[in-house]
User: Which sequence fits this backbone?
């Protein structure tokens, strides 16, 4: 393959400071091949996003089906869903057609696909271990805890990734706070059923993100407009304080890592053990050393920048 081919791959990525290793070396190369194949076609990035969502939902259907090797087929669908989820953004960047609606739809697809798999997992766990009504209650409670912690994890990673790119990547325009999103929503004059659903979920996501972030880290910024435009000196200051903890986020706590864990758990039919791992070891690290490191990094970084979070 030519040098131009692979230079195009690197240009299709986000900042390497926030790219997850599992995405960089597994999901995104495959996604790039898909995006390259779709580049000359009329297929839109939003259509790729919808395909990603459909694959995630179908993975959930397979989890509770009786099809031979249904867990392995579900793993393939979950993996493919993640590849398509990467491909939509890469295709949009290659065409230079990134849009707000596309970002909203992408977030909606992630939520619906992942939620479907977690719901299916709860049915599987009850079918495997449940014999009484209180077993059902325990399974529901356990699944809700996993869902809540997973949502918090992906929400926070998305926030810190956005702040990092806002301060460290020239021309980055995708950072939006809740007031900005709300104003854009109220300025809309017409909706399709799909855009209305995307708006509802996006508003809910942005609002929940702000509240979650403030509880987890009171020293970070949730109003992105106060950060101003990219400046190399400010970017360097922020990187010095935050790059080490961002490396931990992207290695272990991103969406790609989460979906790879689910894919492997499905392939080896140990989904319940992976879910248990998420509410024990992952939560212990997440609310222990990771939160402490992030709070200290945010406090030092914004104090050095002269920015008062609000």
Assistant:
């Amino acid at each position: 393959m030519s040098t131009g081919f692979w230079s195009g791959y690197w240009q299709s990525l986000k900042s390497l400071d926030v790219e997850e290793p599992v995405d960089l070396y597994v999901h995104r190369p495959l996604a790039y091949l898909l995006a390259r194949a779709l580049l000359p076609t009329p297929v839109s990035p939003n259509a790729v996003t919808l395909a990603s969502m459909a694959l995630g939902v179908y993975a959930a259907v397979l989890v509770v089906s009786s099809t031979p090797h249904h867990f392995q087929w579900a793993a393939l669908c979950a993996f493919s869903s993640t590849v398509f989820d990467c491909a939509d953004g890469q295709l949009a960047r290659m065409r230079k057609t990134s849009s707000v609606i596309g970002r909203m739809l992408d977030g909606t697809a992630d939520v619906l696909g992942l939620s479907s798999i977690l719901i299916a997992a709860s049915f599987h766990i009850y079918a495997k271990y449940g014999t009484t009504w209180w077993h059902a209650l325990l399974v529901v409670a356990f699944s809700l805890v996993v869902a809540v912690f997973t949502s918090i994890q992906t929400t926070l990673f998305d926030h810190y990734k956005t702040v990092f790119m806002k301060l460290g990547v020239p021309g980055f325009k995708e950072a939006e706070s809740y007031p900005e999103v709300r104003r854009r929503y109220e300025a809309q004059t017409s909706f399709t059923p799909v855009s209305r659903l995307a708006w509802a979920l996006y508003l809910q996501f942005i609002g929940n993100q702000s509240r979650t972030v403030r509880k987890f880290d009171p020293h970070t910024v949730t109003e992105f407009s106060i950060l101003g435009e990219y400046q190399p000196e400010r970017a360097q200051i922020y990187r010095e304080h935050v790059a080490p903890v961002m490396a931990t986020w992207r290695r272990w706590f991103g969406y790609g890592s989460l979906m790879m864990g689910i894919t492997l758990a499905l392939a080896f039919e140990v989904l319940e053990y992976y879910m248990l791992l998420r509410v024990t070891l992952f939560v212990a690290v997440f609310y222990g050393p990771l939160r402490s490191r992030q709070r200290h990094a945010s406090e030092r970084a914004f104090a050095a920048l002269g920015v008062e979070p609000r």
